[in-house]
Each structure stands twice: as structure tokens, then as C-alpha cells.
């Protein structure tokens, strides 16, 4: 996926996604099937998710955790496709690291005499993200047998196998459409058999027309996800960061907080409570910032009024939607509350900044009982 396509600037592509719909080629993401009688328990060992209660065709954001530290090896989406079958998507930048992580954890799992787990890399599988307020009608238009599938009943975090009506008049193979995405807008991430990836991408573009749907690149994807308060692995998350530090405590299932037993749980569960309540707490927290003047980029230092270093920016850009400079980063615990005034050092100058609640732009996911705005 390029930074941008020739027909729109990054800012124009960003706004197009918010107002109409964009199509992102995210086939670089890594797709797996994890299956077998031990699949659920293995995934509950390496992540903090509560998968026993996850219904078929429901997804959850999770994290691959390191055993000793509770650090995040990668963030991931896990979808249950059957009693013993899960669809797992991880980041392209962690491809080799994750492959090694899965192999080592599965080998250890089997060596301990646990039920069998199989890992299948969907190496050539296509993946596209259809995002924006027009996403649902665009997809609905190409469904084969729309009377069978009501997209209004497919909510954020759910998925369904669909068949599409190809330009040739033939019906496509099954594609897995998962409602959600990385922009904060309503939309679908669509996993496509390799032999039909190009045909289905072209089908969506031609059927919708260029007045409604355009291709979008990495530049718009990054500014959209930052407005939505979403992390980018290798920048806002890394091996040394725990879910609690990252403001992702909500991915730790309620029942797992009681039972533990997942990688790093001895560290992570103590962090959930401050020292005053018998826990360890954390020394830093992920926060959002609105920055005056020049935009703050990754690596910019966050300082207090006395010039003391209290954190670092991990992502930052001008917000096309808000017309302000926004950023994400980590700050010393105690300085993380919304409304706290700090400074960010940009090009050697201190710029005023305010700790701001994320998402910066309200999300518009299609959820039960509420239509997207």
C-alpha cells in the first residue's frame, strides 16, 4: 500500500474517508487460522482474552504477551469461526517475530501434554478494508442474494461469510467480512481467497464509482487511526509496554482478572491496582495530546512547566478533521489526567499541550441499537 494515490492528497483522502468511503489494501497484514481441541486454551494462555464466552463470528482486540514481563509482542484481532477454529490477524511488521512466537508457544504447549493445536498461515489470502459512512451501501450493492444477508444486523465486532456478485455475473467464493476497522468509521475488513482478490477489489471500486469510493494509502490510514485513538505497533506499543501502561486494560477479560494464568499475568494483574490498594500500579500511561504551534512527531519530549522530562510522543500529526495538531504518547503517572497542561519540545522549542481524552474524533461504529452518525 503506497503512502497515497495520485488522485487525492493525504489530507483529501482522509476527509474522503470521513465523508464517503475509501478502500485500503491491507493484504500485508498476516492472517492465520488457529484450530484444534487446544486452540481456545492456547490462545487464553498467550493473551488476556476471555475466549470461552466469545460467540461464533464475534471478534475481540487482544495482545500477544511475553511470559516474564507481560510486554506486548503484538496486538491482534481474534475471531471465533467455530468451536475449535479461530481467525487471527497480526501486524506485517511483526511477521517473523510473531511466527517465532507462535511456534515456540505451541511447541511448549504440546511438550506439556496439552491438546493439539494447529497453526495455518493464510499466506496468499487477500485483505481489504472498506471504510467510511458509505461502506455498508457499497458492500450491500454487490451482495449475491442480499435478501439472505441483512448488513443492518451485522454489528461492530461481528463477522459473516458472504458471497458477492462478480462483474462476470458469477458468484464469488466465500469472503469473510468483519465489521470494524482502523479508522473510527463504520466499515468492513474483508478477507478474500487469493484467486479473487483483484476481481473483488475492482468490483467494489467500479460498482460504487469514483464519486463514492476511492483507494486510500498509508498516509490517510495513519492520520485516521490517530484521530480514532488507535495504537500503531512499533510506535505506540512495543515489547516493553504492558496493556495497563498502554491504556488497554479493557482487553483483559473480567474472568481472567480473577483466574490469571496467561502470559505475564503475575505482572499485569498487579498493575491494575495502585500501590495504595495493594497493587504495583504503573509509572507511565498512554495519553492523547493537543499541541499548539508545530505538530509534535514521534520521539518529541514531553516536559512539565519546570522543564523536567515526563514523557515522550509516540505518534503525532495535524488532524485534518479537527484542524489541530494531535499526538499520542506516554507520560509519567499522575500527569496523565485529561486537562493537564504540559509542554512538548518541537524543533528545540517548548510548545503548549493539553492531555486530551481519546478518541480525538468520535467513533461511528455500527452498534446494536444505534446507527452511525
Descriptive notes:
The chain is α+β, with helices and mostly antiparallel strands and 373 residues long. Helices cover 21% and strands 29% of the residues. The chain has helices at 10-19, 39-46, 95-111, 135-141, 197-208, 218-227, 254-259, 265-271; strands at 21-25, 30-35, 59-65, 72-82, 85-90, 118-121, 126-131, 159-162, 175-179, 187-192, 213-215, 284-291, 301-303, 309-319, 324-332, 341-346, 349-356. The strands form 3 sheets. It has a 6-stranded mixed β-sheet with strand order 8-9-10-7-1-11, with helices on both faces. Helix 1 (10-19) crosses helix 6. The protein starts with 9 loop residues before the first helix and ends in a 17-residue tail after the last strand. 43% of the residues are buried. The model has no long low-confidence stretch (mean pLDDT 96).
What share of the residues does DSSP label as strand, in percent? 25-35%
Helix count equals: 8
| Structural class by sheet pairing and helices | alpha+beta
Distance between the termini: 29 Å
Number of strands: 17
What's the gyration radius in Å?
21 Å
Mean pLDDT: 96
Which residues form runs of ≥5 with pLDDT under 50? none
* Percent range of helical residues: 10-25%
Backbone shape: globular
Note the run of SSEs as H and E. Answer: HEEHEEEHEEHEEEHEHHHEEEEEE
Question: Key features?
Answer:
alpha+beta; six-stranded mixed beta sheet; six-stranded antiparallel beta barrel; 8 helices; globular
Amino acid at each position: 500500500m503506497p503512502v497515497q494515490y495520485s488522485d487525492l492528497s493525504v489530507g483529501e483522502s482522509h476527509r474522503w474517508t470521513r465523508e464517503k468511503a475509501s478502500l485500503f489494501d491491507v493484504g500485508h497484514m498476516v492472517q492465520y487460522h488457529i484450530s484444534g481441541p487446544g486452540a481456545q486454551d492456547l490462545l487464553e494462555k498467550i493473551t488476556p482474552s476471555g475466549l470461552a464466552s466469545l460467540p461464533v463470528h464475534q471478534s475481540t482486540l487482544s495482545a500477544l504477551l511475553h511470559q516474564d514481563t507481560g510486554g506486548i509482542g503484538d496486538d491482534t484481532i481474534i475471531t471465533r469461526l467455530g468451536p475449535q477454529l479461530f481467525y487471527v490477524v497480526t501486524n506485517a511488521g511483526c511477521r517473523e517475530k510473531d511466527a517465532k512466537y507462535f511456534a515456540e508457544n505451541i511447541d511448549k504447549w504440546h511438550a506439556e501434554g496439552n491438546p493439539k493445536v494447529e497453526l495455518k498461515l493464510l499466506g496468499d489470502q487477500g485483505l481489504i478494508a472498506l471504510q467510511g459512512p458509505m461502506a455498508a451501501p457499497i458492500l450491500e450493492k454487490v451482495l449475491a442474494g442480499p435478501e439472505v444477508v441483512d448488513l443492518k444486523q451485522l454489528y461492530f465486532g461481528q463477522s459473516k461469510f458472504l458471497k458477492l456478485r462478480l462483474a462476470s455475473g458469477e458468484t464469488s467464493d466465500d469472503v469473510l467480512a468483519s465489521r470494524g476497522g482502523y479508522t473510527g468509521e463504520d466499515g468492513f475488513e474483508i478477507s478474500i481467497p487469493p484467486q479473487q482478490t483483484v476481481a473483488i477489489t475492482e468490483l467494489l471500486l467500479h460498482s460504487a464509482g469514483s464519486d463514492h469510493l476511492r483507494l486510500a494509502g498509508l498516509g490517510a490510514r495513519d492520520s485516521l487511526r490517530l484521530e480514532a485513538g488507535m495504537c500503531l505497533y512499533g510506535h505506540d506499543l512495543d515489547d516493553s509496554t504492558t496493556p495497563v501502561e498502554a491504556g488497554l486494560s479493557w482487553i483483559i477479560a473480567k474472568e481472567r482478572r480473577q483466574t490469571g494464568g496467561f502470559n505475564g499475568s503475575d505482572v499485569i494483574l498487579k498493575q491494575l491496582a495502585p500501590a495504595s490498594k495493594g497493587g504495583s500500579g504503573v509509572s507511565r500511561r498512554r495519553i492523547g495530546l493537543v499541541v499548539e504551534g508545530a505538530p509534535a512527531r514521534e520521539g518529541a519530549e514531553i516536559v512539565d512547566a519546570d522543564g523536567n522530562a515526563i514523557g515522550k510522543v509516540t505518534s503525532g500529526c495535524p488532524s485534518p478533521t479537527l484542524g489541530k495538531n494531535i499526538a499520542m504518547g506516554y507520560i509519567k503517572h499522575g500527569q496523565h489526567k485529561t486537562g493537564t497542561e504540559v509542554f512538548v519540545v518541537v524543533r528545540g522549542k517548548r510548545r503548549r499541550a493539553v492531555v486530551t481524552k481519546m478518541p480525538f474524533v468520535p467513533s461511528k461504529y455500527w452498534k446494536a441499537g444505534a446507527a452511525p452518525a
